[in-house]
Structures are given as C-alpha cells and as structure tokens.
# Entry
Amino acid sequence: MELQRTLILVKPDAVQRQIIGRIISRFEEKGLKIIAAKFMQISPELAAKHYAAHQGKYFYQGLVDFMTSGPVVAMVLQAPRVIEMTRKIMGATFGCDAEGGTIRGDYSASRGLNIVHGSDSPEAAEIEINNFFDPSEILDYDLTINQWIEGKD
Ligand code: DAT
Ligand code: MG
# Structure
C-alpha cells in the first residue's frame, strides 16, 4: 500500500503537563514509524502558516497564543493510511467531546487545549511537514519490525 506521511504536534499543554512520553507512546504502540522529531518553539509566523485555514475565525487568536505559549514536540509519522489512523487515535477535536481510549478523550477536558495535532489530509500533511521540517531532518530508515506490523496485504 502507498505510504502516507503526517505531521503530529505534541502541543504546549502536553509538554507542560509532562506527558510527552505517554502521547508519543500511543503512536509507537500502534506500530507507526517516526521518521522525524524535534523539540521546538513555534514562532507567531509559523503558527500563522500552520493555522492559515482558521484565520478570521473567533478562536484563531487564542489558538495562535496557545500554540506559541511554550515548546512543542513536532514529529513526522509514516505508514499506509497513517492520517486516518492518527486522527482516530487522537479523537474528536475537543477533549471534552472525545471518546475514552483516544488521546484527547483520555487526557483533555478542554476544547482548545487538546494535547495533540495531526494533519487531516495528504495535501495538508505535505504543506504542514514542509512548514516544520527541512527534508534533511526526515530520516527514512528501515524499521525491521514492520514485517510484523504491516503484514503483506
Ligand atoms: P483538529 O485539531 O481536530 O484538526 P481543527 O483543525 O478544526 O481541529 O482546529 C484546529 C484547532 O483549533 C483545534 O485543535 C482546537 C482549535 N479549535 C477548533 N475549533 C475551535 C472552536 N470552535 N473553539 C475553540 N477552539 C477551536
Ligand atoms: Mg485540523
């Protein structure tokens, strides 16, 4: 199957709550391959690019303020259908609505402070990954356990 990539951000609320490891573990435990990762501060310019689709909405300024309020962990994950899988693992947008068993359902009781970002389409993923990572930071190594995760179909 065709490989997909997605941009995942462990948001400032998760960093402050010291649950970075637990959030990354949700994706690792699923068997998804991390091909880039860094601890970084999002600038107002980068936040504006990343959330360009939400510019003008009532929550936009609060969202940018939140995302630039402290460091995040940015990652690129790669697998067939990784966007669909990560969106399911993350859960509904608002933590207060998200199902138990999802990251947001288990860790967020808020609307906007929802722990994690994941791209919502292949087109968005390509733009978002380019916004956050230089191609030299993406490492497409061989994960030998993949034969036991993806199978042959
Ligand atoms: P998602 O993060 O599930 O892709 P989104 O792209 O629609 O959701 O929105 C981006 C972020 O903005 C989301 O994670 C939380 C915040 N947000 C969205 N809609 C909001 C609203 N109505 N009120 C407050 N924050 C909102
Ligand atoms: Mg989104």
